[in-house]
Design goal:
By secondary structure, this protein is an all-alpha fold. Helix 10 packs antiparallel against helix 11. The longest helix is centred in the last third of the chain and has 45 residues.
Amino acid sequence: MKAFVFTLVLGYYLNLGVIGNKYSRTVNEPKKDSGDDRSVDFRIAKLNQVWEKALRLQLAPVKQAELHSDLKIQEKDELHWKKLKAEGVDEDGEKEAKLRRNFNVILTKYGLDGKKDTRNLESNFLKDHDNRDTDMFEDPRLDKLWSKAKTSGKFSEEELQNLNREFQHHKDKVQEYNIVMETVSRTEDVFKNVISPSEMEIKEHVLHEKHSELKEKLRNINQGFERLRKISHHGFDVDSEFKEPRVAELWDMAKEGNFTDDELESFKEELRHFETKVEKHKHYQEQLELSHQKLKHVEALGDKEHMVRNKEKYTKLAEKTREMGYKMKKHMQDLTSRLAREALQHNEL
């Protein structure tokens, strides 16, 4: 019986890629096709495969740049995990499991998970919000709030675009929560079916961490929805510290933390710099979209000289937008981690 259980557990972990040379140099060093002059963007093979699939699908320029930044963050985290693993850290596989969840979030977010996706991949949040379908947020509560906000007359065109970004940000959080919840459910089922009671006790702390993560994400989602509800009914607060949704959310988290007044003021100043970075990134996204539209226009005219010039400009803008996106998301990741550590220390006191 013990041999049978061991075989099942071994098979489970083999399927998840925990055992084996998943992160070995031979597996993950991308190989260049001799007949392909394209540069290799990532040091991990599976990330290059996702990127190549996105290029084949011809995602909208801003979506493509966002995906590239997300994959760069994933690459950084996976390479860091590889070093930790070599040092004997993460024996329970929790950090690797989180990396898998993050990777699945990326695939789902950009419609690259192999599932039938009814979303319009060419849509872009920078385009006119009035052209969007009423069910774009895939949540009746959000759709209703958005409809009220559009017809309330309380928002200028720019404010509606900012609000639209807040709604999209909330939708992404809900999507990520659903992916994590599905992963936790599958993990629980496997543990219950193939692991003996004694082994289950060893893994209980892993499930506890997963449930804590889910609880925190759900709390964050509920707070975010309440914020959207207030803005939709009453308009933006002219006295609010920050306009960008991600920055405002970090500030709300910081105010709930256990910071001293001086630490909170210092964090606020850092958030101001971060918001400037976010706004600059947004500007480059807008310029990238305009450059892409101009390039398509020139291509339609068949003007080769202008086509080459515009192609060069578009390529440089795309590279700059990806670079800025990566730096912004890494900064966001660092700020979020700092707040999480502060909350953990506060809870332990």
